[in-house]
């Protein structure tokens, strides 16, 4: 009897990723990699940057459009970057890539986006035409930038709190007085 016939009935060529209660797309998606506080902040980043972008897109006329265009670029970029980081934390890519690199990328993306969003919100608030949509976009922009920056400070706090590895003591191979 050939080996293929013996093992064919008991083994699967490509077993599915999930068995049991979670199957399909739900098997690939998890929210457990982020602590509850950070998950809420990531979701707030996503929602607030999207709301800022939507409110800014509703604006039909502008006198000084530089602030509006800069805010548009920053709010759209912030939404896409926060969506990207949330997706990376929630799918198996996080396990395939070094988690330290994901956290490092998240750190720099969060601080950079928060600072640029804050600058864009300030610049837009100085050049707006006082329409309701512009004021709403500015409010959502400031809220989103503060959420990004608070997430950054939480990451700094968690980084300082975790124990640092100690350097091994140097061993002397030859006498010092020789």
Automatic annotation (TrEMBL):
It is a multi-pass membrane protein. Residues 1-20 are annotated as: Disordered. GO terms for biological process: endocytic recycling; protein transport; regulation of protein stability. Coiled coil: none annotated. The keyword Cell wall biogenesis/degradation does not apply. Residues 33-160 form the MARVEL domain. Its main location: membrane. This is CKLF like MARVEL transmembrane domain containing 6. The lineage of its organism: Eukaryota, Metazoa, Chordata, Craniata, Vertebrata.
């Amino acid at each position: 009897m050939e080996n293929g016939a013996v093992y064919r009935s008991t083994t699967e060529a490509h077993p599915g990723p999930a068995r049991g209660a979670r199957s399909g797309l739900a098997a690939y998606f998890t929210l457990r990699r982020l602590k509850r506080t950070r998950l809420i902040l990531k979701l707030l980043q996503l929602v607030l940057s999207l709301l800022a972008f939507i409110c800014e897109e509703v604006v039909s006329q502008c006198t000084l459009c530089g602030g509006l265009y800069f805010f548009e670029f920053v709010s759209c970029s912030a939404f896409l970057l926060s969506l990207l980081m949330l997706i990376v934390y929630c799918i198996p890519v996080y396990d395939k890539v070094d988690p330290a690199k994901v956290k490092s990328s998240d750190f720099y993306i969060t601080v950079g986006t928060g600072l640029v969003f804050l600058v864009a919100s300030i610049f837009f608030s100085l050049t707006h035409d006082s329409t309701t949509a512009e004021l709403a976009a500015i409010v959502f922009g400031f809220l989103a930038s503060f959420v990004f920056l608070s997430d950054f400070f939480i990451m700094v706090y968690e980084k300082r709190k975790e124990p640092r590895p100690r350097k091994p003591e140097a061993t002397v191979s030859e006498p010092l007085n020789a």
